[in-house]
Design brief:
Layout: H1 2-67, H2 74-93, H3 98-144, H4 150-167, E1 172-182, E2 188-190, E3 199-206, E4 215-224, E5 235-239, E6 242-246, E7 248-254, E8 259-266, E9 273-281, E10 284-293
Antiparallel strand pairs: 1-2, 1-3, 3-8, 4-7, 4-9, 5-6, 9-10
Helix pairs in contact: 1-2, 1-3, 2-3, 3-4
């Protein structure tokens, strides 16, 4: 009787041990499977992150190539290039989880579409410049023969007048804006913090143009903050059916040579975010750029 009880207890212990063993094996298998799944997910996310960085660096290279063309879109191209460089830096320093990666993918799509659009514009500008050069060369040849072809001369003179009118327009380039803090001593220290900014310095270049009309030129500069408010004078002027609200004006004595223009826009309580700067020759927008304060 005692042997039977002992055997029964032994069997019970063995069964219990087997149950615990099976349970342990199942738990170990689950932990191992979860670890492999996590490892696979991390590897996939890391690979997608590297691929995204590579694509952004390709965008950056495309903008470098476009800037090397020296088109009239330099300011717009530089602004987009800076956005790409900023996103690369943010992505490299990110944790690389699925949520943040999805956000960067969305931003990349926006930048990619913008790049495609701007590359198309650059292509069109190059074609127009090439066509203009071809037209000018053709006009010169035709003018050499103008004495023999009076009827042709009349038509070509009209075309030449249109070409000269286009070519006589002044070109505004290198539009830049910097923010400064003014110390009590009057010394100005450059800053990118909105809370420390006391003045904005807006500068641009009027390119040399031998066939443009010389004399006094007035440009209207419009600075718009992150809340879509026009800073400065907030004065409004009308040009025909068009009205323009501007921050300040700057007058230049143009003598067909390159002129550097620099003006200061004082203010206070600057807001954080992206600012837009536009330069107008009367109602015509001749240059634009943007900058950010943090």
């Amino acid at each position: 009787m005692e042997n039977q009880n002992s055997n029964s207890k032994l069997k019970g212990i063995i069964i219990l041990l087997l149950v615990l063993l099976v349970g342990s094996l199942i738990y170990i298998f689950k932990i191992t499977a979860d670890a492999k799944t996590l490892e696979t997910t991390v590897t996939k996310v890391s690979s997608e992150k590297e691929n995204m960085i590579k694509k952004l660096e390709e965008l950056n290279s495309n903008y470098d190539a476009a800037l090397a063309e020296n088109t009239s879109m330099t300011d717009e191209l530089m602004a987009e290039k800076e956005r790409v460089v900023k996103l690369i830096a943010e992505l490299k320093s990110s944790k690389g989880d699925n949520t943040s990666l999805r956000k960067y993918k969305d931003q990349y799509k926006v930048l990619e579409e913008k790049m495609k659009s701007m590359m198309q514009e650059v292509t069109v500008l190059k074609q127009e410049n090439q066509q203009l050069t071809t037209n000018l060369e053709s006009t010169k040849v035709d003018l050499d023969d103008s004495k023999k072809y009076n009827e042709v001369l009349v038509g070509q003179n009209e075309e030449l007048a249109k070409t000269v009118e286009k070519g006589s327009k002044l070109t505004v380039t290198n539009l830049k804006t910097a923010s400064y803090k003014v110390k009590s001593s009057g010394k100005q220290i450059e800053t990118d913090k909105a809370s420390k900014t006391d003045i904005l310095k807006v500068s641009f270049t009027i390119a040399e143009n031998k066939i443009a009309k010389s004399g006094d030129k007035t440009y209207y500069v419009q600075v718009i903050d992150a809340n879509n408010n026009v800073l400065g004078d907030k004065a409004t002027i009308s040009f025909g059916d068009t009205s323009l609200t501007y921050s300040f004006t700057t007058s230049v004595k143009y003598e067909n040579k390159t002129v550097e223009v620099s003006e200061q826009l004082p203010g206070k309580d600057f807001t954080k975010g992206t600012y837009f700067v536009n330069v107008f020759d009367k109602a015509e927008l001749v240059s634009k750029s943007s900058f950010s304060l943090r």
